[in-house]
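Quarterly update, task 2.4: nicotinamide-adenine-dinucleotide-bound model.
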Amino acid sequence: MKVFICGGAGYIGSHLVHELSTLSQYEIIIIDNLSKGHVESIPAGITFENADICDKGALERVFTKHKPEAVMHFCASIAVGESVTDPLGYYENNVVGTIYLLQAMKKHNVKYFIFSSTAAIFGNPEETPIPDDSPTKPINPYGDTKLTVEKILAWTEDAHGIKYVCLRYFNACGAHESGKIGEDHDPETHLIPVILQVALGKREKIKIYGDKYDTKDGTCVRDYVHVTDLATAHIKALEYLVRENKSNKFNLGSGEGYTVKEVIEASRKITGHPIPEIIEEPRAGDPAILIAGSERAEKILGWKRKYNTIEDIVKTAWKYHQSHPNGYNNK
Ligand SMILES: NC(=O)c1ccc[n+]([C@@H]2O[C@H](COP(=O)([O-])OP(=O)(O)OC[C@H]3O[C@@H](n4cnc5c(N)ncnc54)[C@H](O)[C@@H]3O)[C@@H](O)[C@H]2O)c1
C-alpha cells in the first residue's frame, strides 16, 4: 500500500516513518515543506517530496506522480501561543491546507485519511480522565483549527466517502530508542526537551508556571505519551480503516498523569544534573489537570503502550538530546 506521510519530516511524523518503514507491505512517500521539519530525520531509501500542502499545484503533481492509497496528515502549525497572535496564519495552514489535501484525495480517489488531532479540542474539560466522547470546546485558535478539520472530515465522508480516523494526542514526548531521531522544535515549548536543555547547560533554570494548583504538589498534571507509541497507534488506525472501512475518533493518552515537578525529578534522576527550577506566575488558560482515557483506542484498535513510566520516556529523550545537543543541525 502506498501511503503519503504529510509532515513526515517533523517530530511525530518522522517516528511514524521509522516504524512504518519496518513493515514491508507499505511504500512511504513523505510530503513536507521543511518549514519545521528536518531532512536529516528521513531514513535512506524513503521517497521525499518537498511540497507545501497549501500549494494546489504541488499537491496535484505529487498525487499524479505517486498515486497514494492512504494519507496520514501530520502537517500543521502547532504553537498554541502563536495561534493566538496569528490566527489567520493558523487557519490557513491547518484548515485551508487540509481542505486542499482532501480535494486532491477526492480527485485522485484516495479513500483513507488519518488526522493528527489534539487534546486542545477539549479546552478546559469538565471530566478527567477525558473520555473519548467528551464535549469539544477549544479555548485557542490552534485547538479550533483542529476541531474545524474534524468537522470538515465528517461532511467530506458523507459527500465523498473518504474514511478517516482522528487521533487526539495528549503530550507527545520521548524519542526513538536508537537516539537517531527525536524532538527538535523551534521554538521549543514542550516540557521535556526544555528541561533537558537545562541539563545540557543551554538554559539556566526550568520555569514552573504556578505551584498552587489543586494537585498533589501544586504543579499542573499532564498526560505524556511516547512518540513511538503514537506511531504504533497510527499503524493500527490504518489497519482499522482498511479492515472496517469505517471512520472513528480516538483519544491517545495514558489514563494517568505526572506533575511538572515529577517530570523534573525524573529528569534529574536520568541525567544526574540538579536541574534548578524557578516558580513563575501561572499562565492564563492552563488547566490544573489534563489526562485522557484511551479505552476506545485500546478496545477497538488494540492499541497498547510500550512506554509506561515517565522515566522510560525521559530516558529515550535524553539519549537523543545528548547526541544532538543543538538538534539535527548540531552546530
Ligand atoms: N507534539 C505534540 O505534543 C502534539 C500534540 C497533539 C497534536 N499534535 C499534532 O501532531 C502533528 C505533528 O506534530 P509535531 O510535534 O510532529 O510537529 P512538527 O512541527 O515537528 O511537524 C509538522 C511537520 O509538518 C510540516 N509542515 C507544516 N506545514 C506544512 C505545509 N503547509 N506543507 C507541508 N509541510 C508542512 C513541517 O515542516 C513539519 O515537518 C501536528 O498536526 C500537531 O498539531 C502534536
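Highlight for this quarter: The mean pLDDT is 96.
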